[in-house]
Amino acid sequence: ADAVFQLGENYRQNREFTEALPLLAEAVAIYRKHDDTMVLASTLRALAECRRDAGDPAGALLESQEALAILRREAPPSDPSLLRALGTQAFILRALDRFDEAEALYREVIDKQRGLPEPPVEDLSTHLNNLGFLLMHSGRVEEAVPVYQEAYDMRREFSGDDHPMTMYFQDNLVGALVRTERYGDAVVHSVAGIKLKEARFPAGHWRIGSSYHTTGRVLVVAERYDEAATYLSTGTKIWSEGLGPDHAWVSTGEMWLGLARLLAGDRVSYLKARDSHLARMIGSLDNSMVEGAFRLLQKTLMERGFQDLADENEAMRRDRLGATDSQG
Fold first, then answer.
1. What are phi and psi for residue 255, nearest 5 degrees?
2. What is d(CA 80, CA 39) in angstroms, rounded to the nearest whole number?
């Protein structure tokens, strides 16, 4: 069972879920025949995480619940295995949109980890970041900002400015700052993120393009349109060269570049971007980045007095949804 579990866990860590799932399930079946319930619980938790990451949070929930029940019964309150199981259960509940239950578990594990003589900074900062995400998506944006800030500060001190997770947490903080209209702070963090990514990743890497695009979007909502156009143009060029000119992110970048020019007084440039790129952007709204960019673009159009253009975009989105439903 130990050997089967380790092989399955190696596949899981490599995100090869098709290979990992049957091995982890086999390890669970073997461990059930023995008396070491703590090992069974840890294996159930790993299997639940694998199912969640494979896109089956509903299937993961039962295994996660069983693991957590065992550990609550048998492990000390601050046992690392119990804390990991709490985090796993919270993540699964979040994926199932059971936000209240997920929040309670995140706060429980965060409080317990804070109380340890040596808090596990990597896990604690990740739980804080996940709690921030949950608060954002529950509409509690003001609450999310200090949580994201703490997660970022903690991870930055532990891992350094240029660690991938530090930069990821910083990007999340930027999003929260924008949503709360703290544009000055958002621009500072966003421009710093560009420099860090340019130092860490190869020239032309898509992550660098994403950082330029994010900064451009922040500058648009901050009404600094000429600066925004410069950043958006650079980010879109990086995406086009690295991902291909037909990629949905390129169309997203072009739409935002058109928006910056529209708000600076150039309606023609926006209409050209819309005619060439809006359909591809709307066709990729299942991508979280594209969906978020479209939602903010619509909000910005309406707030700046371009309700007619926002309505036209929405009409195209609805037509696209209707076509998809008909094909289904």
1. -65, -40
2. 13
Going by C-alpha positions, the residue among 224, 160, 139 that lies closest to residue 187 is 224
Tell me the longest C-alpha to C-alpha distance in the chain. 73
Helix then strand then coil, % of the chain, to nearest 5: 80, 0, 20
First to last CA, the chain: 43
Q: What is the pLDDT of residues 285-295, one digit of tens each?
A: 988 789 889 99
Q: Which amino acid is at 203?
A: A
Of residues 94, 90, 87, 85, the one with CA closest to residue 67: 85
User: What is the sign, positive or negative, of the torsion defined by CA atoms of 148, 150, 153, 156?
Assistant: negative
CA distances from 3 to 6, 23, 30, 43, 85 (A): 5, 10, 11, 12, 22
Tokens 């500058």 belong to: 219
Residue 178 pLDDT > 90: no
Structure tokens at 124: 């604690």
Residue tagged 């492990």 (tokens):
75
Q: Is the pLDDT of residue 327 over 80?
A: no
DSSP secondary structure, 241-260, as one string: HHH-TTSHHHHHHHHHHHHH
Phi, psi (degrees; rounded to nearest 5) at 96: -95, 10
Q: Which of 118, 119, 101 is nearest to 110 (CA)?
A: 119
CA 310, CA 25: separation in Å to the nearest integer? 49
User: Is a pLDDT exceeding 60 seen at residue 2?
Assistant: yes
Inter-residue contact 47 to 21 (CB < 8 Å): yes
Instruction: State the Cα–Cα distance between residues 180 and 195, nearest whole angstrom.
Output: 24
pLDDT digits (tens, 9 = 90+) for 133-149: 999 988 899 999 999 99
Q: Residues with Cβ < 8 Å from 116, sequence gap 6 or more?
A: 78
Question: Which among 40, 87, 49 is positioned nearest to 67, based on CA atoms?
Answer: 40
Closest CA to 277 of 287, 269, 267, 265: 269
